[in-house]
What we know:
Family (chain B): Belongs to the DsrC/TusE family.
Distance between the termini of chain B: 29 Å
Number of strands of chain A: 5
Helix content of chain B: 40-55%
Distance between the termini of chain A: 24 Å
CATH superfamily of one domain in chain A: DsrEFH-like
Keywords (chain A): Membrane, Transmembrane, Transmembrane helix
Subcellular location (chain B): Cytoplasm
Number of domains of chain B: 1
Protein name (chain A): NADH dehydrogenase
CATH class of one domain in chain A: Alpha Beta
Order of helices and strands of chain A: EHEHHHEHEHE
Strand content of chain A: 15-25%
Number of helices of chain A: 6
Organism (chain A): Levilinea saccharolytica
Helix content of chain A: 25-40%
Number of strands of chain B: 2
Shape of chain A: globular
CATH architecture of one domain in chain A: 3-Layer(aba) Sandwich
Oligomer: heterodimer
Number of helices of chain B: 5
Radius of gyration of chain B: 13 Å
Strand content of chain B: 5-15%
Largest interface: A-B, 15 and 14 residues
Amino acid sequence: MAEDRKVAFICSKGTLDMAYPALVMGWAALGNGIDVTIFFTFWGMDLINKNRVDKLEIAPVANTSMKMTMMGVNTGNLGIPNLMGVLPGMTAFATKLMKDKMKELEVPPVSEYLQMLVDAGAKLYACKMSVDMMGLKKEDFVDGVIDIVTASDFMDMTDGAQIIFI
Amino acid sequence: MATRTIAGKTVAVNEEGFMTNPAEWTQEIAVEIAKEEGIEELTEAHWKVINFCREVGAASGKAPTLRTITNGAGITTKEMFTLFPKGPAKKVAHIAGLGKPEGCV
């Protein structure tokens, strides 16, 4: 392994399932002595938004990988019908299922996980354009977000890093 | 299986240099491997973590993950990265004569 290996993640999604990839891989990278930078943009802003991070959800609508069996109904490969997914409470239900499963596997909730990464030395940055678009301020972010930067700044600070877009 | 001599004792190691038989471990070996990992002196805080990992290793046969250490040994993530910089769980497992920790958290 290169002595000075660097990995940078771009988090552009704000759903519960898409919050985890950067957290898991970032944590693994830090555990291997690799420098980690995470840039949050667009819907990914929810991951660092104090008011949003504990309320991330996963919707069963148009999610072809989500099967009925995950809800404890033994129906093999049958998906959750989209028509059923639109019923009130279905998103909350799917979210609860996923959160319970994560808890069972002792995977920390997103906010706690993010704090672990910060404590381990990960550098978090918020995207300037998204901040402007969503009318957010630095105070809206969780501890550990270093600054609000432009895409160009991000390119400068990730010189030589492997970049992973999520 | 490869062997190597650490602190005057010949022990079995795997291809990554992790000891494969925790029973062969001694405190002198820990001091020696720590130096190789760039930790010149093992302080009381280091030993607290090493001993915790030895206990977990003895009970489960596996090296604890970083989260298991922070949850179980009463130490924060920050302190772990200060005591064992750049990959603390792996480093402490190496020093404690255990295998590489498995698991994603």
